[in-house]
Amino acid sequence: MAPAGLAGGCGRSADLLLAAAAVAAASAVGATVAWLRSHRRLQALQAETAQLYAGLPLLLLRITVAADGGRRHTLIGGHLAGSQVDVTTVLLPGADLAPPDEPGALSVETALAQAGRDGKASADFRLFATDGSVEWLRVKFVRLHQGADGGFEVAGYVTSVTAEREATRSLLASGRLSAMGELAGGLVHELRQPLAAIAMAAENAEASLDNGEPEGVRRKLDRIAQQTARAGTLIEHLRRFARGRDMEPAAPVPLDQVLAGAVTIAGEALRESRIDLQTSLGEPPPVVLCQMLALEQVFVNLLVNARDVLARLPPGAPRRICVSASTQPSKNMVVVTFADTGGGIAPGVMRRLFEPFVTTKGIGEGTGLGLAICRRLMDAMAGGITAFNSDEGAVFTVSLPAGQL
């Protein structure tokens, strides 16, 4: 039989062990309850997040790119309303996606590589549906992790920009028609000249027939043919300028051809306002990589804007537009400068010059969209447009990638 003291000590130890076990059990139960509550909260948060993702008008995804180029896609959520795009196949190697015919357009592989290298990338693509329709997609990537072996992980989203592209196309067409509307009088004069020459040659040919001069008739018929070709060329140029082309590819074009086309549209308006147009493009003129009609639209807008400013100058003031070109071999760029003697642009307007609806013209005289359209066109051609004031007036610079014929 154990001594009383020892028995009491064992009893107290047993009580302490039981108490510790009870505390441990209570702690375990409490931890389990806390975990269950946290788990339920996490599940609720995940459900709310999934619901939020489901309402987004885009597809969120995560892409892991291995060092050997292999890719693994994880769809996070979202949707493309009215689209048949399957994100599990759209961004896979060999997907039927075509980059636009624009300088600097990226393929999916190039955009992913750029995101892995630079941290982010963006690209637009055309998806050709089985019914022949075209859907435009925009993909943006942001790098999340860079592996030591060269692999990386990006987060990205895919969104449909078909409506945006259609709106841009309509806006550009409106800009072309607006320019032709403003210059309608000059365009009529351009057509009147060959028509008047044809009428005169026909009368002279008739007189030659009456006088028995067949050689004179032949010369007059040759002149009629020349002037008819001139009028036909002008009409075809105006038709192409007014309609444009939805998918005009970028191509190398001599700069003087683009400027000549712009002068066809705006030249008579400049002459009516007694504006001296001086050009210095170099010999030979540089070749630029551009969408010809788009660049022509930019040039027409700049010439017309300068005409509007110069036409308001008092009599005797110099009315001059100087168009010059220079090359930057180190950047493989060509810079075209339009400088006028109109006194310059007010600082308050200059800060917002390329924003939509900013104009210095009076009410009913301009929409304020011309320069905003010019910037969008230049961005699409991997170029740029800027403006500053000189001592005589405003100077606009248009930069474009250099091309080769």
The CATH topology of the largest domain is Heat Shock Protein 90
Q: Look at the structure and give the mean pLDDT.
A: 76
Q: Which strands sit side by side, in order, in the main sheet? A: 2-1-6-5-4-3
How many independent structural domains?
A: 3
Can you tell me the CATH architecture of the largest domain?
2-Layer Sandwich
Q: What are the secondary-structure elements, in order, as H or E?
A: HEEHEHEEEHHHEHEEHEEHHEE
Which percent band covers the strand fraction?
15-25%
CATH H-level superfamily title of the largest domain: Histidine kinase-like ATPase, C-terminal domain
The number of strands is: 13
- The tally of helices reads 10
- The stretches of 5 or more residues where confidence is low (pLDDT under 50) are none
Task: Please outline the helices and strands.
Elements: H1 4-54, E1 59-65, E2 71-78, H2 87-90, E3 97-98, H3 108-118, E4 120-128, E5 134-146, E6 152-160, H4 162-182, H5 184-210, H6 214-243, E7 251-254, H7 255-272, E8 276-280, E9 287-290, H8 292-311, E10 320-328, E11 333-340, H9 347-350, H10 370-380, E12 384-389, E13 394-401
Parallel strand pairs: 8-10
Antiparallel strand pairs: 1-2, 1-6, 3-4, 4-5, 5-6, 7-9, 10-11, 11-13, 12-13
Helix pairs in contact: 4-6, 5-6, 5-7, 7-8, 8-10
